């Protein structure tokens, strides 16, 4: 039965193979093993691929180790299928190599079989442990305690992790130098420790050789590193005093002086923290001294920082202690047990400060007596005085004493600082009185307080001075009247009443200042009123019946005590439909008139300059007329009159034919009103024209001004001085509308005008004999000074009373306010009426 079954299977297989192509056997996994770093010889056989085939095939190999990295490691014999190794493989780079095996038919080279092959690389102990650094250098303090962690060294092994080949341990192979006070040890983690005590004087540097050894089964590999341990000097030696220099004496009250310098020595390393000294003082509870370290010599420098008083003692006894910046540390090895840490004896500030005996030195400072300044019993004193106090009023008394016992005790009082010069002091008693009237409103007074510095100066050698401060509180009085903040006001016209604010100020304080009472003086009913009239600001109300114009109002301003001042307020009422205020409204008229005036004035000054240059060169000396009068002299006019002119040549040109421009001077004034072009008739012609015609004329005349500006620029700036002159010039010359300036400008300046001037001068010279003789008129005060009328003497009786002069009426008050200067004040004893003048 079994044979029958096998026969059926064979028949079916043969039948299928004849009908269909044979199915390929693909990805049948096979694996091989090899050790890394095989010593050879190469090539050697790794194994053979077994493949049962009834027909001939060729073998081929692809993948890692053949045509992929690492390349050219394996090859396969094409006919037998045996795999060979051509070179060694590193396990640390490639732990498994994956390849593809193919069997191809020899007839058509089609793939018959494809296999996936894995080659496993076995690790061997071919890598020793490697340290991160070949050299470690560290520094430890000399006072480090045994068992302290010094440093950690690290190594790594590239062999397979978890195998004996990659497992290692650390060991200290050698220590140089070997000393009996220190022993180093290392733990399995690579951490370095020590036992015992470091001593910088015994060894300042240790060199350790540390090894890392792996645990390979066949062979053990190792590597080493060097660790250098530098021992920094600690403070295991205390500083010791060796002496002192200096006088040990200091003058009382003297500061910044060093009476002593203390010297020490230390066996620790120079300029280290263990060597640098630090000093302290005992017995100086009041803080008169300080001691600092000289960084170069390590000396202690004692300095006086707070003045000493001889009266409290002629000597000061101090105790100076010295130690180092670094804390003191001492370590001694007592025994060395085989296990654990050693037994050591440690002394420092933490473990037993009482056992450390720091060095100390006692010093004596002698205090020398000197002249002390006088001392005021109160250095800051308060006083008060009214600001209207009369000169000589007593203010305060200051008192000082001289603490000296051996020097002179005599001293005098003086004013040290008196900003306004108001005070004086009695040199012997210290009484302070006023020598001028004080003013609370002065800039030297701050918050109603006037500060005075007084001094007491003794007669020692050198003289010493004590100082005190006196704060004088000035009590306010009603010595100032309210002041109107403005003297000009502009109001715009409107259909109804208009209100404008006026304000006042008073330098006095309450209750002598504001709020104020405002009043209008004079007959202003139905025109002006004040609403409100009480406060710091009043409202000036213009009635609708007040038309445009300038009004002079008298405003009376009274303070809370009735003290008042009367002021003139100039009020301008105008229409503000064109400009926002009256001042801007008048500005365009001024500018237009100024342009016309400058143009005309420049032209005429040029003509005047020609005439003045000609006449000035030969003018005769004018003799002043002496006048004698017991009451004064009339100012000499020295005005030339016709007939005193000298003759000029007929040809006004110079020899070279050119006009001498340097001779043009403006020494004489030209009477423009007598020329035929500038009479009143011609002026009225332009006024009768329409507004458009006059505006066109102004524009034409402005062009004239620009054309002559270049020839008379030097005259223009000196000609027009005030707004009034500009207005006058404008009104005089606007009638010159028919003068066609552009057509005849060159002819006028170069030909016609010089000839006209020359003819006019000649006419004066020809009629010189017919001119009348001018003689000065003798007035009544001129003449003989000896003739003086006698005046009757005026006798005023002794019982005459001047009380009636206190109230002379409003008109006299107005006259007085006009005549008085701004600084003058008229005060009445009862009402204290004051009239202020605002330059009206």
TrEMBL record:
Segments passing through the bilayer: 592-616
Domain annotation Cadherin: ranges: 50-131, 132-241, 242-376, 377-484, 496-590
Keyword Phosphoprotein: no
Chain segments carrying region Disordered: 633-662
GO biological process: adherens junction organization; calcium-dependent cell-cell adhesion via plasma membrane cell adhesion molecules; cell migration; cell morphogenesis; cell-cell adhesion mediated by cadherin; cell-cell junction assembly; convergent extension involved in gastrulation; homophilic cell adhesion via plasma membrane adhesion molecules
Membrane topology: Single-pass type I membrane protein
Record keywords, A-Z: Calcium, Cell adhesion, Cell membrane, Cytoplasm, Glycoprotein, Membrane, Metal-binding, Repeat, Signal, Transmembrane, Transmembrane helix
Places the protein is found: Cell membrane; Cytoplasm
Originating species: Cyprinodon variegatus (Sheepshead minnow)
GO molecular function: beta-catenin binding; cadherin binding; calcium ion binding
UniProt name for this protein: Cadherin 27
